[in-house]
Amino acid sequence: MEKTLIIQRYNPEQDQAPSAKRYQVPFDHSTSVLDALLYIQQQLDPTLAFRWSCRMAICGSCGVMVNKIPKLGCKTFLRDYPAELTISALDHFPIEKDLISDMAVFLDHLQAVKPYLINDSNSAEPHRQTPAQLKKYQKFSSCINCGLCYAACPQFGLNPEFLGPAAIVTAQRYNLDSRDQGKAQRMPQLNGKNGVWACTFVGFCADVCPKQLDPAAAVNQGKVASATDMLISIFKP
Amino acid sequence: MPDSAGARRPYLQPLSRSWWLKHSFFLRYMLREATVLPLLFFCGCLLAGLYSLAQGESQYQSWLAFMAQPWVIALNTLLLLASLYHAKTFFELFPRVMPLLPAPLMIAGQWLGTLVVALLLLWLFGAIG
Q1: Which residue ranges does UniProt annotate as crossing the membrane (chain B) (predicted)?
Q2: What is the mean pLDDT of residues A80-95?
Q3: Does residue B93 sit at the A interface (CB-CB below 8 Å)?
């Protein structure tokens, strides 16, 4: 059994714009899109460039558009598609080569929200946390930084300065952590015009998230946090 | 040593004006946002009604006649459907923004609230009871 993969190719040394190339790939019940790309690279065309690492939906490297929907290559199976499927680099990011995107904008946004525990106490004691405190942020802690939500977000496509779903989810994840004291440092980013308020709740990010962590909910809960923060800052001397 | 940065020539993907036609998810989103358009017409109608009421009885009667025209009724029916669709999407998004209770309970509660307010208004204006 074979399926046709129509792959967007772009060679920065030769091409002005990406163009499509067709490949016939054998498949069975367990063939993922990543397996198919590896087959093409190893058997048909060694020049095909794409990122991958873990093959098990935890490294977040193999994000591509499959039939115009952002997907992880390793978690998407040829069996679920008709005889032809189109694969291209993630939307809204510059294409470095073939299926490889330049994720620098996303990484800058992620860095801007200080995605780590900020705690000034110098105590050598461990920071204890109750199960109830863990539950507050746990649902937002499984982001693998694959960038699929950015490829799904038209607001990020229109305005690349928008912090975007994953960065805001991660900011929320640390703001809601009882061990963290960095909320005051993160709120200016979230409150700004490229923060939570740039989101119009399209909600597609939640559909494409391979970890089902509902970035759209996190962003819009961030609006509640942002509004509360503003009210408090008005009344605080 | 070759200049590796100089060899880079990333292709910037253009975002076309028709991005929202790309698949059904974006179409449904744009439909949700477009429900404001018939609402504008309704607000215009209401304002015109208030204005004509202040102008006197004959003005008000002609406004009533305008509102009874088939195309106005058709537009307002469209508006009602659009508002109900917007309410549906809003009620489904609300529990995700403020997860106070299990989502199905919050959605049912909001529809119940809508029904109660609608019945109250119908009773107030003498359409029922």
Answers
A1: 29-51, 63-85, 105-125
A2: 97
A3: yes
ipTM: 0.86
B17 Cβ under 8 Å from any chain A Cβ: no
Q: Which two tokens stand for residue B31?
A: 């439909």
pLDDT at B8: 87
DSSP string, A191-233: HSTTSGGG-----HHHHH-TT---HHHHHHHHHHHHHHHHHHH
Domain count, chain B: 1
The pLDDT of A137-160, averaged and rounded, is 95
CATH code for the structural domain at A2-101: 3.10.20.30
CB distance A52 to A74 below 8 Å:
yes
Domain boundaries, chain A: 2-101, 104-235
For residue B70, is it within any domain? yes
Residue at B76 is within a domain: yes
- In chain A, the percentage of residues whose pLDDT exceeds 90 is 87
Task: State the pLDDT at residue B1.
Answer: 46
CATH code for position B29: 1.20.1300.10
Asked if A12 and B8 come within 8 Å (Cβ–Cβ), the reply is: yes
Query: How many angstroms separate the CA of residue B87 from the nearest CA in chain A?
Result: 15
Over chain B (129 residues), the average pLDDT of each successive run of 10 is 68 92 93 93 94 95 95 94 95 92 96 96 86
Is A207 in Cβ contact with B10 (below 8 Å)?
A: no
Q: Which CATH superfamily is domain A104-235 in?
A: Alpha-helical ferredoxin (1.10.1060.10)
For residue B114, the number of C-alpha atoms closer than 13 Å in the C-beta half-sphere is 13
Alpha-carbon gap, residue B49 to B44, rounded angstroms: 9
Asked whether residue A197 carries a pLDDT value surpassing 60, the answer given is yes
Task: Give the pLDDT score at A237.
Answer: 74
Domain that holds residue B85: 25-98
**Using alpha carbons only, what angle is made at residue B9 by residues B7 and B15, rounded to the nearest 5 degrees?**
170
Residue B8 lies in a domain: no
- Gap between the Cα atoms of A195 and A222, Å rounded: 9
Tell whether B99 lies on the interface with A, counting CB pairs under 8 A.
yes
Q: For residue A109, name the pLDDT band (cuts at 50, 70, 90).
A: very high
